[in-house]
Task: structure prediction
Amino acid sequence: MKTQIKKILTDHSLRQTQGRIDVVSVFLVNKFAVSHADIESGIENNYDRVTIYRTLKSFLESGLIHKVLDDNGTTRYALCAEACAGGKHKHNHIHFKCTNCGQTSCLEHVNIPEVKLPKGFTPQESNYLISGVCDHCSK
Result:
């Protein structure tokens, strides 16, 4: 996994610090969007909150991760499925939050209906969140 992490960081022109390696490993271990608190728990509090925030900010700016807002206003982060050019994220996909386990997942291959805005409105970002029971919990 360490080789994969180093390649991810290199592909996004990010230095390979131990903190960044540890944070990327949290994303790879969890196949769902994670919060700042999830990341802190995943790296066993080896880094302070500011270091993690700075790491997340650099990941966002480089196109490595994107923000996911859940139904209670918590910001979560998920790896970008495709490379996003430095801070210009193109994430027209749905996020699904399970009401049972609480995990938020990116549903990359679900088509989003076209939204036609009134004249004079220019979209800059869209967030699509559907709540329900995930495939793991419905088994």
Notes: Residues 39 and 81 are 19 Å apart (CA to CA).
